[in-house]
Design brief:
CATH superfamily of chain A: HIT-like
Distance between the termini of chain A: 46 Å
Largest sheet of chain A: 6 strands, antiparallel
Order of helices and strands of chain A: HEEEHHHEEHEHEEH
Protein name (chains A, B): Related to Aprataxin-like protein
Helix content of chain A: 25-40%
GO cellular component, one term (chains A, B): nucleus
Mean pLDDT of chain A: 96
Number of strands of chain A: 8
CATH architecture of chain A: 2-Layer Sandwich
GO molecular function (chains A, B): DNA 5'-adenosine monophosphate hydrolase activity; double-stranded RNA binding; mismatched DNA binding; single-strand break-containing DNA binding; single-stranded DNA binding
Oligomer: homodimer
Pfam families (chains A, B): DcpS_C, zf-C2HE
Low-confidence stretches of chain A: none
InterPro entries (chains A, B): HIT-like_sf, Znf-C2HE
Bound molecules: adenosine monophosphate, zinc ion
DNA sequence: GAATCATAAC
DNA sequence: GAATCATAAC
């Protein structure tokens, strides 16, 4: 199985180190390269759904997965609460749910991620911009009506040309290391 | 002043956020991008010395800086001891002293670094290999007799072709993330 | 030296 | 998608 289909493994055989929950419709896993303190993926198992462009999810299709989103959010809230008081500042509104305008991995997946973006795995500007700006399509915006940018166009307009702004205060940063330092400070501030 | 001479600032005006010690002969600073838990730089202020290729430091020249090496090592041992018991596993033999075969920054500087190599700033294979393998020339090997590899040759032979082996157990790793994970484990193990 | 971007090969 | 390497521009 090529890297593009690496998420298929979870759908076919849901038992894994990363698996937090599964039933006949869904598998919920921890993202292996979390771009924030909490970063889960919801993977619909239905073949009709897993092969879809997530931008085109219908309201009917979406309705089937709402409860898994609730589960994932609740998992984050509860887990952070019980994490020795370290993460007890996470609120429901700190959690983002959505998809990438152009996913890299083939099987449809829904990101559920906290808005701290404090993570060692966040290494490149694209990692941040993919969750902050138009490349991140909020669950509530789906289905996103056509026309769609091509992959090249989206890369340019929705990633490369986007500024690096703090997810909390909108302050623009010249580069990723300074933004990351600031995000760490935002996180530490919230803790107190 | 171009990036190549950024260390000159410390020599000209030793008072800075990073400065730990200075006198007429030397400035000792914290490396701004530490590649391990403790990473200091010793900067000779003597113009004749600062412009030298460090590989050619004579025994006579070296003798002038021995005491600053002692100071730097002692600083690391004492600081780690007083760091709330977090780093109290650092021993004198965990500290490496030396220079890079081909320095990037112009003013002669001596690295004093712990062998944990646990650091967010260690981002590329070269960062690790520059301290582990022939690219790192130990203080005790100086002066290094000619002939010298060219910069290109050193980059190939002393960096690119070198394996990524653990500084503690010599185990070879396929890539930097797996090595970093292992180094973190080595560090945590030593702590206990 | 650091940071960004493009490009293979997986 | 991740990881490595080469390449500008600072
Ligand atoms: N083997 C894996 N297991 C779990 N998550 C993964 C794996 N490989 C990549 N990912 C994550 O999958 C997501 C795919 O992103 P995207 O296709 O852009 O929506 C990213 O957040 C990756 O970190
Ligand atoms: N502005 C700076 N202040 C302090 N250290 C620095 C600065 N810029 C780079 N460095 C460090 O200087 C060292 C130069 O490495 P090298 O020239 O390869 O011996 C590296 O360890 C860098 O992290
Ligand atoms: Zn902010
Ligand atoms: Zn080891």
């Amino acid at each position: 199985m090529s890297w593009k289909y690496v998420l298929k493994g979870y759908i076919v055989n849901p038992t894994s180190e990363n698996t937090l929950f599964y039933d006949d419709s869904c598998v919920i896993i921890k993202d292996s390269f979390p771009k924030a303190k909490y970063h889960l993926l919801i993977l619909p198992r239905d073949h009709k759904i897993t092969i879809k462009d997530p931008k085109t999810l219908t309201f009917k299709e979406k309705s089937r997965y709402e409860k898994y989103i609730v589960w994932a959010k609740n998992y984050i809230l509860e887990t952070s609460k019980s994490n020795g008081g370290f993460d007890n500042n996470i609120k429901i509104n700190d959690i983002r749910v959505g998809i990438h305008y152009v996913p890299s991995l083939a099987n449809l997946h829904i990101h559920v991620i906290t808005n701290d973006f404090v993570s060692d795995k966040l290494k490149y500007p694209k990692h941040y911009k993919a969750f902050n700006g138009p490349f991140f399509v909020d669950w509530d915006q789906l289905p996103l009506p056509p026309p769609y940018l091509t992959s090249k166009e989206a890369e340019m307009k929705y990633i490369k040309l986007q500024p690096l702004k703090c997810s909390h205060c909108d302050y623009p940063f010249k580069n990723l290391p300074t933004l990351k330092k600031h995000l760490k400070q935002e996180w530490e501030t919230k803790k107190n």
